[in-house]
User: Which sequence fits this backbone?
């Protein structure tokens, strides 16, 4: 009996550890569990409780804001230039449940926008995809310090193709949504995705892109001073102008390196030099290919 009880306790403890580990992993990665329910640990870590956020219409003058943080679950996130001199944000939810309404908070000069009002340790049940539209006024196109987006499965579209958005730090973290960024000049850009594709057409002084299975395409007129691109199985494609000068440090298990530009191999390492090698690029993949094409 003692042996049987000890074995039962071991089995129960293993089961408890397994369940807690699964919940922790889902929380950290913002993964969906139990169908459409999201255990919102990941967002709470990043944003804290949103129970004190406002659901009032968001219209704010640019002098009040120098940073924007967005926490969204699913649907779309669209960011573009405002047609007037104010920040605006709206979603397409038409119901009356406060928990599912877009909510926001101005903390010092950081505008925080969330999918809905949530208390700490909150389950999201029966939610639907929502579209968020954020409009940034012209006065802030060169005055923002940070734009941070944390999403589970939203498609993210940042479009400033007419007037460039000049920003110090751009941070995008998503699980399965596709990310499209156009017309942004970031001093530092960090984009992480698990399975969504990534497209970046703009400028950056430093850029880091991390993907598991999603393909990445980046187009630069001027190469960043430093670029780090990591992938498991997704391909990484760079489109750059004809006067390129870069060094490419390539590491992969089975992926291939393909380049339109003439390069020289540096010793026995997979380091390719083009021109004077000014831009420092590094690529790390398991099976994903790296392709550098001339525009």
Assistant:
């Amino acid at each position: 009996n003692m042996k049987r009880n000890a074995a039962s306790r071991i089995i129960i403890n293993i089961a408890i550890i397994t369940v807690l580990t699964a919940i922790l992993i889902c929380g950290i990665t913002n993964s969906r569990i139990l169908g459409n329910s999201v255990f919102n640990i990941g967002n709470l870590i990043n944003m804290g409780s949103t129970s004190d956020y406002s659901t009032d219409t968001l219209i704010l003058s640019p002098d009040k804001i120098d940073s924007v943080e967005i926490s969204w679950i699913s649907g779309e996130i669209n960011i573009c230039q405002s047609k007037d001199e104010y920040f605006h944000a709206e979603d397409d939810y038409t119901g009356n449940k406060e928990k599912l309404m877009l909510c926001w908070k101005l903390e010092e000069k950081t505008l925080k926008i969330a999918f809905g009002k949530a208390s700490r340790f909150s389950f999201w049940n029966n939610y639907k995809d929502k579209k968020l539209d954020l409009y940034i006024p012209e006065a802030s196109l060169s005055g923002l310090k940070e734009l941070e987006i944390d999403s589970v499965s939203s498609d993210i579209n940042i479009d400033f193709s007419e007037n460039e958005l000049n920003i110090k730090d751009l941070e995008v973290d998503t699980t399965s949504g596709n990310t499209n960024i156009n017309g942004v000049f970031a001093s530092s850009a960090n984009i992480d995705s698990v399975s969504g594709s990534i497209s970046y057409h703009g400028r950056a002084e430093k850029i880091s892109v991390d993907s598991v299975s999603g393909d990445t395409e980046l187009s630069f007129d001027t190469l960043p001073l430093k670029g780090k691109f990591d992938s498991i199985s997704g391909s990484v494609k760079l489109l750059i102008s004809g006067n390129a000068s870069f060094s490419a440090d390539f590491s992969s298990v089975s992926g291939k390196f393909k380049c339109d530009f003439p390069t020289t191999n540096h010793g026995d390492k997979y380091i390719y030099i083009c021109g004077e090698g000014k831009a420092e690029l590094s690529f790390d993949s398991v099976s994903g290919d790296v392709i550098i094409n001339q525009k």
